[in-house]
Amino acid sequence: MINYPEFVLSLGSGFPENGIVTCTSPSNIALVKYWGKRPVQLPENASISFTLDSCKTITILKYQKLDTVSEGFNFELFFEGKPKPDFKPKINSFFERISGYLPFLKHYKFTIETSNTFPHSSGIASSASGMSALAFCLMQIEREINPGITDETFIKKTSFLARLGSGSACRSLEGPITVWGDHQHIEGSSDAYAIQFPHKIHSNFNNYQDTILLVDKGEKQVSSTVGHDLMHGHPFANKRFEQASDNIIKLKEVLISGNLDAFVEIVESEALTLHAMMMTSLPYFILMKPNTLSVINKVWQYRKDIGSKLCFTLDAGANVHLLYPEAEKNEVLDFINNELVVYCQNGQYICDKIGLGAKIL
Ligand code: PMV
User: Fold this and answer.
1) Which CATH architecture has domain 5-199?
2) Would you kindly state where each structural domain of the chain is located, as residue ranges?
């Protein structure tokens, strides 16, 4: 079904015979969380995220024009050099969702070779970086067919397509901060795609650090698809969507003013609220582990002891993202090495920072 006719490719100079394109796209970490959606992949509330820098997916897309248009989608998929049949159904349904907007899909045989810079089964979701990288690669073909596409439409449509693969993926294409979801106080915002935060960001957030503590590297027991669904009929859903909307307004001010104490409060409250929604849905579930709570308590103690601006946020899992200003980097890394590595599986953590989005290589 085509709900957004402005994103349907109008065919230009014919289809290229073949080609190869390599793109990277990073992961992102939400500050105000998206949890709860309406069909098709539309958010119940607006969300804001930091785009990451080094946690990313690298995708090579090879395309060869077919003699006759195929019935289904014709693609092979390799993950870290090996065929990955279990990823195929997800890509197939992604192609089904987007083929009305990219009518060339059935004209090609694709080979998709993908790998991540972060360790496999680290508990870091690769759907945001993976889907945004694939959408970005596909849009390079669109640009060949329609070279007149403006940069603005190009990036909006890429985000729009990535959203149809995985909601939060739409926030990975640009950086350093993006907003997804229609919000009265964010000019240009839309449920259909993410945009760059449309104000000057305070220098306190330059090179903001995100160190991801790998507390539990296992598969999640509850997927985010199931989690989002459980917000239907959730007793606190409406209040939560209102709260997220208020937090967008507050965070907007904070990102402009650089008030880091207010930043810490919003971000930690959002993380705990996300998990509170999981604990209060039916069926209820808990994705935090005992070590997640130990880290949180240590962070609170550290902040109290030395007046640091270090704070934590959580994704839909047990790992902890530690966010802090670049100026505190050495002290915080000492603190992590001295006091937090014991809570990480095999002592592992990943140092990342705020980044700029997808790129062609
Ligand atoms: O994009 P999805 O459907 O995997 O959902 C992501 C949800 C959270 O990561 C928990 C929050 C967010 O806004 O990224």
Assistant:
1) 2-Layer Sandwich (3.30)
2) 5-199, 206-353
Q: Is 224 in the pocket of ligand 1 (CB under 6 A)?
A: yes
Q: Whose CA is nearest to atom 3 of ligand 1?
A: 167
Helix, strand, coil percentages for the chain (3-state, nearest 5): 40, 25, 35
CA–CA dist 25, 359 (Å, integer)? 7
CA distance 300 to 298: 5
On average, the pLDDT of the chain sits at: 96
Instruction: Read off the pLDDT of residues 257-316 as tens digits, 9 standing for 90 and up.
Output: 999 999 999 999 999 999 999 999 999 999 999 999 999 999 999 999 999 999 999 999
Q: Is 196 near ligand 1, meaning CB less than 6 Å away?
A: no
To which H or E segment does residue 57 belong?
strand 47-65
Q: How far is the CA of 148 from the centre of ligand 1 (A)?
A: 33
Whether residue 40 is preceded by a cis peptide bond, meaning omega within 30 degrees of 0, is yes
Q: Is the CB of 126 under 6 A from ligand 1?
A: no
Q: Residue 257's Cα: distance from chain center in Å?
A: 25
Using one digit for the tens of pLDDT, what is the confidence trace for 97-123? 999 999 999 999 999 999 999 977 677
- pLDDT at residue number 218: 79
Ligand 1: distance of its center to the CA of 2 in Å?
A: 24
- Determine the atom of ligand 1 nearest the C-alpha atom of 32: 13
Domain 206-353 of CATH type 3.90.700.10: no
Q: Which two tokens stand for residue 87?
A: 């990823």
Closest CA to 77 of 96, 67, 62, 65: 62
Q: Which residues of the chain have pLDDT under 70?
A: 11-13, 121
* Neighbouring C-alpha atoms within 13 Å toward the C-beta of 113: 9
Closest CA to 360 of 95, 139, 147: 139
Q: What b/e readout covers 200-236, taking b as 16+ CB neighbours within 10 angstroms?
A: ebeebbeebbbbbbbbbbeebebebeebbebbeebee
φ/ψ bin of 234: left (φ > 0), alpha (ψ from -120 to 50), beta (otherwise): beta
Query: What are 65-81's pLDDT values in tens digits?
Result: 999 998 999 999 999 99
